[in-house]
Design brief:
Number of helices: 12
Radius of gyration: 22 Å
Strand order of the largest sheet: 3-2-1-4-5-10-9-6-7-8
Family: Belongs to the universal stress protein A family.
InterPro entries: UspA
Protein name: UspA domain-containing protein
Number of domains: 2
Helix content: 25-40%
Domain UspA: 179-299
Pfam families: Usp
Strand content: 15-25%
């Protein structure tokens, strides 16, 4: 019997008629405010992003005392008074900086100063926003208390995308002109692609990178590399350039960073902790590699 193949009709793809400028924009952006060295540059990038999307900018300054003081509830108020005064002065300085940046960029601004532990407080505020802007841990920071795992804690706990900025080097603005999206067919990556929708809609270039591509996962599930191109076109994203690279012996994280450099990407979008967090802590993984050694901003989603 002859092997007969039926040709599939070619569909004309048009952007979805339900998309509008309003429903593809960020509407509320949080930024972590503190007294650290990168606060001013972090704020400026968040304010520029808010201006680009006509979004409200929310400055989040967490009022807290170092952990050891929580346990000293029996001590005299003389111990706490100078600490409270110093923290109040630092908050007022941060608030002034925030209000000046918001005014300079012409954006609506709101100040939040919750009390409590830093990570959970930031994560809770982020849930009322489209994303939160933070900085990578800086091991050389001396002007403010530093928490090595703060970004990870917020990424895992917020339920919102977290834009993490590298502490070293000058960051190209506006962020999101050329985006590198890391695609591994996983849930976290799909979530990141959806969470980045407002930024992707404004991007000029989109690179879709798969590291150590597993073709055997594609065929039996009737998946085609062009599926992501079709989705992107319907979403009014740039026509994606689909690339694949082997990690060889340098690891997935370093392969992603190398690709971002090679393609001139100013933003990486990726799902965080596709493996268990414990496994990545013990064995290492792409999420931790990028959190620790990022060279461009990374939008993480979990």
């Amino acid at each position: 019997m002859a092997n007969i193949q039926t040709a599939r009709p070619t569909l004309a793809l048009n952007p979805s008629p339900f998309l509008s400028q309003e429903n593809t924009m960020l509407v509320r952006i949080a930024v972590h405010m503190d007294s650290d060295l990168r606060c001013a540059s972090r704020l400026e990038i968040a304010a520029q992003l808010a201006a680009q999307h006509k979004a409200e900018l929310v400055g989040v300054y967490v009022r807290y005392l170092p952990f050891r003081f929580y346990k000293q509830t029996g001590q005299s108020d003389e111990i706490y008074s100078p600490i409270r005064t110093k923290l109040s002065q630092e908050e007022e300085k941060a608030r002034t900086l925030f209000e000046e940046a918001a005014a300079a960029n012409g954006v609506l601004a709101r100040w939040k100063s919750p009390q409590g532990e830093l990570g959970p407080a930031l994560a809770l505020q982020a849930r009322y926003c489209d994303l939160i802007v933070m900085s990578q841990f800086n091991p050389n920071e001396t002007s403010a208390p530093q928490y090595a795992n703060l970004a990870e804690e917020v990424i895992m706990g917020a339920g919102r995308p977290v834009l993490v900025l590298p502490y070293a080097g000058k960051i190209a603005t506006p962020i999101g002109h050329s985006v590198l999206f890391c695609w591994d067919l996983g849930r976290e990556a799909a979530r990141a692609f959806a969470d980045a929708r407002p930024i992707l809609h404004e991007a000029a270039e989109l690179i879709v990178l798969t590291v150590d591509e597993e073709a055997e996962r594609m065929r039996p599930n009737d998946l085609d590399p062009q599926d992501i191109s079709i989705y992107s076109k319907l979403r009014k994203y740039p026509e994606p350039r689909i690339v694949s690279r082997p990690s060889r012996d340098i690891g997935v994280g370093c392969t992603i960073l190398n690709a971002a450099t090679d393609y001139g990407s100013d933003l990486i979008v990726m799902g965080a902790y596709g493996h268990s967090r414990l496994r990545e802590w013990v064995l290492g993984g792409a999420s931790r590699t990028l959190i620790q050694t990022m060279t461009v901003p990374v939008l993480f989603s979990h």
